[in-house]
Amino acid sequence: MAADTEAAALAGLDSLELQQTRISAGDRARKIWAAVWPKLLAIAIVIGAWELVYLSGWKSAAILPSPAAVFSDLWALAQHALLWQAIATTLRRAVIGFGMALVIGVVIGALVSRIKPLRAAVGSMITALQTMPSIAWFPVAIILFGATTNAILFVIILGAATSIANGLIAGVDYTPPLLLRAGRTMRLGRIAMYRHLILPASLPSFVAGLKQGWAFAWRSLMAGELLVIIMGQPSIGVLLSTFQDQSAMASTISIMIVILVLGIVVDLIFSRIDTSIRRRRGMLDPAAG
Question: Cα(141)–Cα(146) distance, rounded to whole angstroms?
Answer without folding.
Answer: 7
